[in-house]
From TrEMBL, chains A, B:
A GO MF label: kinase activity
Protein name per the record: Transcriptional regulator/sugar kinase
UniProtKB keywords: Kinase, Transferase
InterPro entries the record matches: ATPase_NBD, ROK
Record flagged with keyword Kinase: yes
Gene3D superfamilies on file: 3.30.420.40
Entry similarity comment: Belongs to the ROK (NagC/XylR) family.
C-alpha cells in the first residue's frame, strides 16, 4: 500500500532545504542542496525542480515551496526575490510540471506563520504575528486564521517600519527602519560603528557580552527598544493574540525576550501587550509551513503535522 | 406583498442615526435621535431599542448596529465605549429581543470600511484601509475581503501609532501618537498652542488659511507629515490596494489629499504607495456598512446597496 507523502522545500539565499514528509509529520527523507543563486534564476529553478523530483516518491500527493521576497500565492508566482533572481517566476507551475502533483507556493515568513499557527505556539490563536529576526527583519501575519498577503503579496514588511523618522539611514533608502537597529546585521554593524572593542563581533556576540561591554549593552538596548516600538505599532494596527519571535536572534533567549516584552508594554499605555515568546520551531518553520500548505493543497485538510514538533 | 427591509443604526457619541433601508438601498424612513449618553449605559440601550422598534416594519429581516470603541462582532457585544458607557454590553441580543430579527453589531470604523468596500471606492479591492479623521483618528481595515477585528476586537487603532517616539504627549498616556498631530481636535489645539492668531480656530479654519497664516501652514504640514508616516507604516504592514480617507477633515479636499499622498510616497523609498482618496460616502458610511451587514446576517448575501450612493 502506498502511503501519502508531501515534498516540502524551503528555498533560501544559500540553501534549498528539502524533505519528504509523512502524514504524521515524520521526515522520511531529507535533502539540502546549494541554491546556486550566483548562477541566476534558471539555475535556481533547475535545482528546485531537481530536489523536488529526487524527494518525491510514489505516494507524493503535493509539494509546498517556501521562498523569500514578494510572492503571489494565488498565482503560484515568485514576484520578486533579489537574492534568487526571481522576477515573476511561475515557480509553482514549473515544479508541478516536474512532479505532476499540486504545488503551493508561499512567502517564507507567511509559511513560518502558518507552521506557528498550526503546530507551534499559535495553536489557540486566530490572530498572530511571527517576527523573523535574522540578517533582516520581516513578519508573517495570520489574521482570523489565514495568512495575510496584502494586495501585492508584500504585507508584513515589519523590518522597514520607520520607527525613528529622523533615524539612521537604511540601505532601502528610508530612514530609521527597524531593521537598521534590530536585525542581526544591524546590531553587528552598529556595535562596530560605535567603537565596540570586540573585532568582528556578531549579534550573538553582542548579546552575550552585555554585562561586560557597555557598547554592547547600549546597542542591544537600542535594538530591543526599536523592536518594542515596532511591535507596539503592529499591535495597535493588528491586535494579535500572540507575537512569536523567530530567526537567529532568538538564540539569545531571555536576553532578547525580557527587554522586548518590557519595551512593548511600555509603548502601550492603555492596553495590555500580547504575550511575546520565542518560537519552538527554529529554522524548520518555513519548511514545516510549506508542508502543511502542501497537504491542504492536496485536499488533506486534516493533516496538521502535530507530531513534527 | 411585504417588501424585505433592514434597520440600520449608527450609534455615535451624541446621535443615533437610524434608517429603514430597502434592498435597492433606498432609505424608506429616517430617524435621528439624541443618544442620551450623559444618562449612562441603560438609557443609551433603551433609546437604541426604541429607535430600532420605531423603524422596523412588517418586512424587516435584520438589524445592523454600528458603534464606536471595542466591539466583539462574533459575540454581538460592545466591549468598551467610554462615551456611551458600554462595558461588555450585549447590544445585539438586547436589540434582537426588541425587534425579533437577527441583529449584527460592528465597530463603526469597520462598518465604514465594509461600506467602502461594497459600495464606495473599494469595490475592486480585496484589501483596503479606511482612515476616519475626526475628533480622533481610527482605521477600519478590510483584509482579503473581510473586516479585520483582531484578537480583542481592537485592530485599526491607527490614531495611537507612535509616529514620533519622543513626540508630544497624548491623552492616552503615550507620546507622539498620530492623533496628537492629525486629528481635528489635535490640529485645533496645536494651532492655538503655537500662537495662532485666529481665536477658536477649528481644523477646517486652519485648512482654509494656509496661504495667509504661517502658523496654520506649519500645523497643517505637521499633521499631513504625521499622517503620511502612519500610512506608510500601515502600508508596509498591511499592503492595502487603496487607502480611503473619511471623517470631518476630508472636508478640506485636495488641501488634505495632496500633501498626504506626497508624504506617504516620500516615506516609502522602495515601493509604490497605494492610491489615497477621499470617501464619497461622507458621514453615512457607518450606517450604510451596518445595513450591508444586516442584509448578510439575514441571509440576503446579494444585497449590496449599489443604488445607495
Amino acid at each position: 500500500m502506498t502511503v501519502p507523502t508531501v515534498v516540502t522545500l524551503d528555498i533560501g539565499g544559500t540553501t534549498i532545504k528539502g524533505a519528504l514528509v509523512g502524514a504524521d509529520g515524520q521526515e522520511l527523507k531529507r535533502l539540502d542542496r546549494d541554491t546556486g543563486a550566483s548562477s541566476g534564476e534558471s539555475e535556481v529553478v533547475a535545482r528546485v525542480r531537481a530536489v523536488a523530483r529526487e524527494l518525491a516518491d510514489a505516494g507524493t500527493v503535493g509539494v509546498g515551496l517556501s521562498v523569500p521576497g514578494i510572492v503571489d500565492t494565488a498565482a503560484g508566482v515568485a514576484r520578486h526575490a533579489v537574492n534568487l533572481g526571481f522576477r515573476d517566476t511561475p515557480l509553482a507551475a514549473l515544479v508541478a510540471e516536474e512532479v505532476g502533483v499540486p504545488v503551493v507556493l508561499e512567502q517564507d515568513c507567511r509559511a513560518a506563520a502558518v507552521a506557528e499557527s498550526e503546530i507551534g505556539l499559535g495553536r489557540d490563536a486566530r490572530d498572530l504575528m511571527v517576527v523573523v529576526l535574522g540578517t533582516g527583519v520581516a513578519a508573517g501575519l495570520i489574521v482570523d486564521g489565514r495568512p495575510l498577503a496584502g494586495a501585492d503579496g508584500s504585507a508584513g514588511e515589519l523590518g522597514h517600519l520607520p520607527v525613528y523618522p529622523d533615524g539612521e539611514h537604511c540601505a532601502c533608502g528610508q530612514r530609521g527602519c527597524l531593521e537598521v537597529y534590530a536585525s542581526a546585521s544591524g546590531i553587528a554593524r552598529r556595535y562596530a560603528a560605535a567603537g565596540g572593542t570586540r573585532a568582528g563581533a556578531t549579534a550573538a556576540d553582542v548579546a552575550s557580552s552585555l554585562d561586560s561591554d557597555v557598547v554592547a549593552a547600549r546597542v542591544w538596548r537600542e535594538a530591543t527598544e526599536a523592536l518594542g516600538l515596532a511591535l507596539a505599532t503592529a499591535t495597535l494596527l493588528l491586535d494579535p493574540a500572540l507575537i512569536v519571535l523567530a530567526g537567529g536572534l532568538t538564540g539569545a533567549g531571555d536576553t532578547l525576550l525580557r527587554p522586548v516584552r518590557s519595551e512593548l508594554q511600555g509603548a502601550l499605555a492603555w492596553r495590555q501587550a500580547p504575550p511575546v515568546a520565542n518560537s519552538p520551531l527554529g529554522g524548520d518553520a518555513g519548511r514545516l509551513g510549506a508542508a502543511i500548505l502542501a497537504w491542504r493543497a492536496a485536499g488533506y485538510e486534516d493533516v496538521v503535522l502535530r507530531d513534527a514538533v
